[in-house]
Amino acid sequence: MTTAPDTSSSSSSSSSSTSAGPATDSATDSDAVDTTSTTGAPPEPVCGDGVVNADLGEECDDGNNEDGDGCAADCTNECPGEIFLDDWNGYQYWKVQVEGTMTDTNVLAACQACGLSVPCQSTGNCVYNDDSCLQTGNETSCGNPMLNMSQMLCNGQSPSQCNLVWDLYQHLGFNWVNESSCGAKQNQWCVQGAGQSNEFALCVTQL
């Protein structure tokens, strides 16, 4: 019988301890509700959120606020180009103005000036790939630049019959005539870039 008071005292102490717990939990629940309410609101659009918002005057938005990658810190284009394909299997393709002849040297320089790469001509050990190109896996026919792209965009048509790729030039790894890039024009493919000037480079970046 002498143990009863001790048990009661212990129970009382335990009860006191228990009553303190829910108060803390209650405060936590209250905070959680407030936090949920705040995070539940849609975020305000800002430069650097990865979504182009014309109302903010954005020309591009690559998800960061850094210069030198084609899209400036203020979400304006840094180069004389435009997005040609927004997302092709995780890669974004650009059409970039080239100054001068359409050689591999000038095509590569135009892409790099925009913080972009030249796409590899094909998968595998294609002779027109080199260390400067970015392998996307989207082109699979060595010796047929931009073929898969053209067929995708123009219902199976070759580049010479697909107006969406006319005046675009594919880098060929410094391994074609006079270091020419390969161009597409109406009823012509591949056009030797060394004989053409001030057209557009096909550039790419990984998303």
Main structural class: alpha/beta
Q: How much helicity do the residues have?
A: 25-40%
Q: What's the SSE pattern?
A: HEEHEEHEEEE
Shape: globular
Distance between the termini: 76 Å
Number of strands: 8
Compute the number of helices. Answer: 3
Mean pLDDT: 85
Indicate the proportion of strand residues. Answer: 15-25%
Q: What is Rg?
A: 30 Å
pLDDT under 50 segments (min length 5)? 1-30
Across the major sheet, the strand order is 1-2-8-5-6-7
Largest sheet: 6 strands, mixed
Notes on the protein architecture:
The protein has 3 helices and 8 strands. By secondary structure, it is α/β, with parallel strands linked by helices. The strands form 2 sheets. The protein has a 6-stranded mixed β-sheet with strand order 1-2-8-5-6-7, with helices on one face. Strands 3-4 form a two-stranded parallel ribbon. The chain is globular. The N and C termini lie far apart (76 Å).
Keywords, separated by commas or semicolons:
207 residues, 6-stranded mixed sheet, 26% helix, disordered N terminus
Can you summarize this structure?
By secondary structure, the protein is an alpha/beta fold.
Secondary-structure blueprint:
Layout: H1 3-39, E1 81-88, E2 91-97, H2 104-113, E3 118-119, E4 133-134, H3 147-153, E5 168-170, E6 182-185, E7 188-192, E8 200-206
Parallel strand pairs: 3-4, 5-8
Antiparallel strand pairs: 1-2, 2-8, 5-6, 6-7
